[in-house]
């Protein structure tokens, strides 16, 4: 086939280093940028085949999110803006690791397995983040697409969620929105402005928000979006990329892990601040108290704020829709208790990883999901959206129900349902705080997190640990879960679980309890049990105190 001749010719310009093996994981491929040229070319090929198979446009995003600046990566986006399916993740790994002379065979293998009609038209949308390596790497993707005769639209610098949004808009023939960056700002910001009209007399102080852009793409896009907000949100932008390094001592991941504010931001006591990560698909909020104490509001607090708001609106609208919050085992026990016992909201627990949360959220009329790290969004079923629209448009609806239905409609429009989106989540949170007239301290006080501790234990082989019940219980090695259960019984309000890392030979340990000292001691004792029963390597874990 002439197409394969072109692939062969182009592929020699993007050669694979012999012996280099990479795995396509939840975050796609991620490693040092110098090792990625061949991967990008091949993901251009795979996206083109995927497009021909689905008869739809596919997205390819060049980013390494919260990784250091010298890294890069790539993720594929499926037709509705969702993550690519597990089978195709397997194909991505297969294609990436084929040695140079075996590339065409690997390509043919996928085409045959999936019975792809190669004469079908193909369309691919490409986006990239602000890393210095992203330009040449996104060009390699484009080379891959054109080698198989696909049509490519290069969106240039966009956040990861913006690319997901563009793909969804295009494949729904514009029903989800206009597939341009301008269209994205217009839809989200108009909905935000409509929502804030329901807030009474906001002062300039209440409209003010400090944003840490992680020296990444999110900073650029906040600047672009600002003029669409018509002064309804006044943003002070820090770590805007003009001098600092991407993700270096800043960004959502740094703030969450280090439990302290980013460098380069001026914090006045009680002021609302938020941080994006490197590709703007995660967000966390925080403030400092009068005594300088740092307070973090992570994904659990965000999910609680949003689900409480939505539940109240459903009640006011008289709509009987099933709303649920989807969490992982890492969600703080206090948030689960508050949602289930006080708000009477359904809580589902899934394995760690956004795709598991997204899938579980799709089972409900309204599914709110957030990982503790600040990645999350809200999904509305088609039926739920139609019921809300019907209520808003029905002339017989009384005023209070109509107001609630209109608020729900604008909430739907401010949310990017394809994927977690820091810009969209920020607008939603700001609108809810304004409507409910809440300060960040009042939001934080909804419930108090149980003190917790996370540790890592190095093991010879992480596969000896097998878990069940959404990773909350260990099935193997023998005796480990029994050991954890008896340790947990020693402390008040305690719980602990262990799970193998997805990327390295370590076992991650999580513990929470009534006091920080108890949580620390429990985490250490569980680490020792893992070390002794699951083949720990190196020195025995040392106590934290």
Number of strands: 19
Helical stretch tally: 19
Low-confidence stretches: none
* CATH class (first level) name of the largest domain: Alpha Beta
User: Major sheet: size, sense and barrel closure?
Assistant: 5 strands, mixed
Overall tally of structural domains: 4
Rg from alpha-carbon coordinates: 24 Å
Per the CATH scheme, the topology name of the largest domain is Alpha-D-Glucose-1,6-Bisphosphate, Chain A, domain 3
How far is the N terminus from the C terminus?
A: 67 Å
Helix content percent band: 40-55%
Strand content: 15-25%
- C-alpha geometry: globular
Enzyme class: isomerase
Binding site for substrate: 371-373, 499-503, 508
Catalytic activity: N-acetyl-alpha-D-glucosamine 1-phosphate = N-acetyl-D-glucosamine 6-phosphate
Domain Phosphoacetylglucosamine mutase AMG1: 179-284, 298-437
Structure characteristics:
single chain, 545 residues, alpha/beta, Alpha-D-Glucose-1,6-Bisphosphate, Chain A, domain 3, five-stranded mixed sheet, magnesium ion binding, Phosphoacetylglucosamine mutase, magnesium
Secondary-structure blueprint:
Blueprint: H1 2-11, E1 29-32, H2 37-54, E2 58-62, E3 71-77, H3 86-97, H4 103-113, E4 123-128, H5 134-147, E5 151-157, H6 160-171, H7 181-196, H8 204-207, E6 208-212, H9 217-226, E7 234-238, H10 252-258, E8 273-276, E9 283-288, E10 294-297, H11 299-317, E11 323-328, H12 333-342, E12 346-350, H13 354-361, E13 366-370, E14 376-380, H14 382-393, H15 399-414, H16 422-435, H17 440-444, E15 452-458, E16 466-468, E17 473-476, H18 480-488, E18 495-500, E19 506-512, H19 516-533
Pfam family, one: AMG1_III
EC number: 5.4.2.3
Organism: Mastacembelus armatus (zig-zag eel)
């Amino acid at each position: 086939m002439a197409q394969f001749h072109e692939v062969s010719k182009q592929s020699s310009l993007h050669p694979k280093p012999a012996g280099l093996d990479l795995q396509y994981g939840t975050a796609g491929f991620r490693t040092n940028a110098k090792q990625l040229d061949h991967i990008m070319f091949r993901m251009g090929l795979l996206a083109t085949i995927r497009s021909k198979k689905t008869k739809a446009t596919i997205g390819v995003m060049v980013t390494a999110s919260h990784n250091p600046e010298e890294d890069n990566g790539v993720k594929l986006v499926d037709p509705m803006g969702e993550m690519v399916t597990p089978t195709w993740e397997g194909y991505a790994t297969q294609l990436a690791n084929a040695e140079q002379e075996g590339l065409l065979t690997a390509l043919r293998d996928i085409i045959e397995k999936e019975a792809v009609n190669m004469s079908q038209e193909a369309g691919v949308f490409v986006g990239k983040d602000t890393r210095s390596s992203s330009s040449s790497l996104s060009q390699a993707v484009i080379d891959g697409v054109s080698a198989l005769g696909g049509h490519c639209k290069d969106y240039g610098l966009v956040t990861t969620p913006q690319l997901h949004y563009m793909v969804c808009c295009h494949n729904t023939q514009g029903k989800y929105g206009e597939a341009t960056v301008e269209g994205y700002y217009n839809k989200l910001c108009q909905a935000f402005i409509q929502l804030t009209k329901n807030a009474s007399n906001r002062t300039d102080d209440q409209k003010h928000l400090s944003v840490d852009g992680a020296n990444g793409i999110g900073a650029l896009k906040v600047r672009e979006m600002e003029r669409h907000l018509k002064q309804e949100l006044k943003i002070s932008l820090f770590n805007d990329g003009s001098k600092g390094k991407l993700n270096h001592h800043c960004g959502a991941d740094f703030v969450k892990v280090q439990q302290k504010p980013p460098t380069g931001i001026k914090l006045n006591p009680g002021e609302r601040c938020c941080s994006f990560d490197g590709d703007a698909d995660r967000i966390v909020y925080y403030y400092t108290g009068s005594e300088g104490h740092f307070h973090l509001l992570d994904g659990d607090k965000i999910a609680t704020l949003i689900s409480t708001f939505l539940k109240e609106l459903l009640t006011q609208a008289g709509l009987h829709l099933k709303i649920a919050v989807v969490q992982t085992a890492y969600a703080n026990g206090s948030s689960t208790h508050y949602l289930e016992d006080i708000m009477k909201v359904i809580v589902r627990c899934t394995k760690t990883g956004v795709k598991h949360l997204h899938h579980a959220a799709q089972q409900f009329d309204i599914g709110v999901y957030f990982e503790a790290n600040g990645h999350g969004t809200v999904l509305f079923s088609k039926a739920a959206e139609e019921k809300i629209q019907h209520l808003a448009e029905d002339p017989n609806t009384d005023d209070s129900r109509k107001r609630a239905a209109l608020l729900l409609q604008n909430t739907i429009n401010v949310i990017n349902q394809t994927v977690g989106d820091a810009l969209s989540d920020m607008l939603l949170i700001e609108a809810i705080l304004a409507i409910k007239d809440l300060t960040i301290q009042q939001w934080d006080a909804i419930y108090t997190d149980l003190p917790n501790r996370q540790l890592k234990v190095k093991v010879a082989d992480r596969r000896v640990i097998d878990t069940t019940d959404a990773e909350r219980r260990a099935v193997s090695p023998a005796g480990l879960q029994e050991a954890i259960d008896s340790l947990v019984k020693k402390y008040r309000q305690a719980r602990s679980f262990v799970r193998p890392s997805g990327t390295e030979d370590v076992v991650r340990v999580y513990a929470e309890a009534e006091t920080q000292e108890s949580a620390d001691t429990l985490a250490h004792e569980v680490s020792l049990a893992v070390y002794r029963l699951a083949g720990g390597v190196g020195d025995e874990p040392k106590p934290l105190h």
